[in-house]
Amino acid sequence: MAEEYELNEIDDTLHGSVGSRLSLFARELKSRRSSSWHGGTALRLPKDLYESLVIHPNGRWYRIWANMMFLWSIYSTFFTPFEFSFFRGLPDQLLDLECVQLVFLADVAVHFFLAYRDPHTYRMVHDKRRIALRYIKGSFALDVLGCFPWDAIYKVTSRVEAVRWLVWVRLYRGRKVMAFFKRVEKDIRVSYLLTRIVKLITVELYCTHTAACGFYYLATTLPPAREGGTWIGSLSLGDARYINFREVDLLTRYVTSLYLAIAMATSTR
């Protein structure tokens, strides 16, 4: 009888332990379901965070926004040296391009609500005050400066050359391009080799493009009377003459500058 009572007691204890654990697991699962978003993302935010407008960096909508900003960042990093070198103030037909700065201004606002992972605890930080302080201490100033309409300011300030140089602040947006490639390199669904090749080609194209813009800008720094002695002013390609190169169409000047940049990069002497 003592042995039977002892066995029954052990059996009840086991059943009670398993039952309590299953009950605890069911309550935890129910609690998580009730407090999570109803979206289909793998990483979800609690409902109260959704209501307080905190954005998760792995959320579907933010990933779409980040990919869009990646495309606009490519445009901005390529157009900035082109604008600086080939224009002394944008012509009227290109003024609408300045509207792109509104997109980057919206991205500044988004970053005030973008949660981040603490580098020490590796936990997501959703407190909006901490998010804002972190962003203000980080890239906020450069992001805002990049959104300034420097072309309009340049024209209003009687075309002060120093103002034009501030447009180079927009190259800071190139970090979004590098962050995109870094994220894709870690994605096992995408070929790492292909990603590296595309990244290498992008960097090479950008360096060649920037060098071409730089060579053309150097030719425009001399007084008009001496521009005939510059590399492009003294250039002759077949029947084409570039003595008055400013009167040559924009595409021809850019392609000629690209030619010089490539020739200089591949020359062995």
Automatic annotation (TrEMBL):
Subcellular location: Membrane
Gene3D superfamilies for the chain: 1.10.287.70
GO MF: voltage-gated potassium channel activity
Residues covered by the Ion transport domain: 62-267
Keyword Transport recorded: yes
UniProt membrane topology term: Multi-pass membrane protein
Entry protein name: Ion transport domain-containing protein
Keywords: Ion channel, Ion transport, Membrane, Potassium, Potassium channel, Potassium transport, Transmembrane, Transmembrane helix, Transport, Voltage-gated channel
Family matches, as InterPro entries: Ion_trans_dom (IPR005821), KAT/AKT (IPR045319)
